[in-house]
Amino acid sequence: MNAEFRHKIVLITGACSPLGAEVVESLAGQGALVVAVDSDGARLADLVERLHAQRLRIAGRQIDVTSSAAVDALVDQVEREFGEIDALVAMAGALRPGPALSITDDDWSHSFAVNVDGVFNISRAVATRMVDRTRGTIIMVPAHAVAVPRSGIAAYAASRAAAIAYTECLAVEVASRGVHCAVVAPTDVHRVADEVGFLLADPTNTTNTAVGA
Question: Where do the TM regions start and end (predicted)?
């Protein structure tokens, strides 16, 4: 248990991915109240039940982050039910692997809807409230590092690069209002949960730039 986390409310999207679940469990284990968000209701229920059995503070919410209306309603509900959101960890992502010349229109659109629109929707909804309060932390975590081009992930890499650029621009705009943003790219997936916890414990460590992207 970490005393710094006992009063924190953290919203995490993509909570049921392997990496997302690890971050959820890590932050809840340190004492934060975690609102776990995912589109997979069955896996979300299993995650919440498992962590409740460990007496950790967690609530599950099933939504589609590509819907701005659903995201706005979620953030409003969370703040009315639990209190002000201290931190957002945006981890929801979609990966449809395949050669660049074989990407379908649907693959491309879906990748950008989840990986870019989803980040935009949830970041905007949370950051608007954080700016008014002049405090808060937003961390974006891609499922894969995209700084080095690789075959088979063109749609994912292109969409995540757009989301990273958006997050960096957001960081510049909201820094003066007490809101800190960072990108934590998983060059070593075993360190992601620790990196996120480190940034949430001291938001000034973000320096409002991408980390390991």
Answer: none
Taking the CA atoms of residue 99, residue 110, residue 208 and residue 190 in that order, the dihedral angle to the nearest 10 degrees is: -60
In order of start, what are the domains of the chain with their CATH numbers?
A: 3-201 (3.40.50.720)
- pTM for this prediction: 0.91
Residue 100 reports pLDDT greater than 80: yes
User: Given the DSSP bridges, would you call strands 179-184 and 33-38 parallel, antiparallel or unpaired?
Assistant: unpaired
Q: Is 11 exposed, middle or buried (0-12, 13-18, 19+ CB in 10 A)?
A: buried
Which tokens in the block code for residue 90?
């945006």
CA dihedral 88, 16, 109, 212 (to 10 degrees): 60
Catalytic pick among 156, 157, 170, 179: 156
Query: 181: which 2 tokens?
Result: 């943003």
Long-range CB pairs of 186-190, under 8 A, 24+ apart, other chains included: 186/19, 186/141, 186/142, 186/143, 186/144, 186/145, 186/212, 187/145, 187/212, 189/19
Does the active-site annotation cover 156? yes
User: Collapsing DSSP states into helix, strand and coil, what is residue 47?
Assistant: helix
> Strand ranges (DSSP E) for the chain?
9-13, 33-38, 58-62, 87-90, 136-140, 179-184, 210-211
Per-residue tokens: 169 = 């621009």
- Using one digit for the tens of pLDDT, what is the confidence trace for 108-144? 999 999 999 999 999 999 999 999 999 999 999 987 6
